[in-house]
Amino acid sequence: MRKAGFALAALTLLTGQADGQRADRDDPLLRPIAADYAARWLEPQAPVRLHGQSYYVGFKGLGVVLVRTSAGLILFDGGVPQSVRAIQANIRKLGFDPKQIKYILVTEPHWDHAGGVAALARDSGAMVIAGAAAVAELRRGNVGPDDPQAGIHAQMPGVTRVRGVRDGEQVRLGGVTVTAQATPGHTAGSTSWSWQSCEGKTCATLVFAASINPVSADEYRFTDHPERVALLRRGAAKLAALRCDIAIPSHPDTNDTLKHLAALERSRVRNPLLDKAACRSLAATYSERLDARLAKEKAERR
Questions:
Q1: Residue 55 lies inside a defined structural domain of this protein
Q2: Pairing mode, strands 176-182 and 191-199
Q3: Among 181, 182, 179, 165, CA closest to 130
Q4: Euclidean distance between CA atoms 50 and 162, whole angstroms
Q5: Domains: count for the chain
Q6: Residue 15 reports pLDDT greater than 70
Q7: In the chain, pLDDT over 90 holds for what percent of residues?
Q8: Domain containing residue 159: CATH number
Q9: What angle separates helix 278-301 from helix 226-241, to the nearest 10 degrees?
Q10: CA 54, CA 261: separation in Å to the nearest integer?
Q11: 91 found inside a domain
Q12: What is the Rg, in whole angstroms, of the alpha carbon atoms belonging to the chain?
């Protein structure tokens, strides 16, 4: 009888998983976007505690960060639709319930960072918050015609419940205050987010940084758009000026985040992420990429 009971329980579990997988395949908010291209970002990464109650729950190529508060969870970015279940699984591995996400704070309305937001918000009931200029693009699921990636940006699920914030505006939940830091240039409303995390009496300021990369469709030339170059310069300058002890970019391979996560998995005796120059160094990387892109475009014109 006991063996029969175990067999029935196992069958029920497998049947439930199969039903869930079928439902996901039919879910318009979870349909994969550019699956072959996006796969380069989705190599699994075990969830890791960054500092205090702040955790990395994303991938080796896409940053997603979680903060636990006394009143629920705050999630930063949502990956692509096909990554939603893995993000939720990473949150559960930490012992938290994804349904307790109260806010999803978005760095930018590009599909690699916001494509999974609609599903995550639906499953949790969370309010989505983004830079004011990104709100319309998140709602329609696509960027505007002036975005450097407009010609190559994939349609993503639109977000129905989203609120815009201004530069410097604060979001509060359960004793945690997150500040919107406008870091423009990459796309409309690009916003980095900063907050304080404490371990006992030791506190650190964390920044989840939006991309400030000069990435575009093939035909787009930044040298023809000095206003866009000026925005990117301004975004990098803003990031460099932030008080910052830990900087996690929305693409973690932009700095040493992946190396530091691996070190944290081995030992927490010293936190390798702590670096008072973290935001300055990350901003310098973005500036170097812009300089290289401009130099390349000018060389091609000769």
A1: yes
A2: antiparallel
A3: 165
A4: 27
A5: 1
A6: no
A7: 88
A8: 3.60.15.10
A9: 160
A10: 13
A11: yes
A12: 20
Q: Say which residues have a Cβ less than 8 Å from residue 34's Cβ, sequence separation at least 6.
A: 111, 154
Residue 196 makes CB contacts below 8 A (sequence gap 6+) with 176, 177, 203, 204, 205, 206
CA distances in angstroms from 114 to 61, 130, 139, 158, 264, listed in the order given? 14, 10, 11, 9, 27
Q: Which residue has the tokens 């939603």?
A: 84
Burial of 258 per CB tally in 10 Å (0-12, 13-18, 19+): middle
CA distance 86 to 95: 14
Domain enclosing residue 51, as ranges: 33-301
Picking from 160, 217, 156, 158, the residue whose alpha carbon sits closest to that of residue 32 is 156
Which tokens belong to 195?
């907050």
Q: State pTM to two decimals.
A: 0.92
On whether residue 17 sits in a domain, the answer given is no
Contact 193, 174 (CB under 8 A): no
User: Mean pLDDT over residues 122-133, rounded?
Assistant: 98
In a domain, 7, yes or no: no
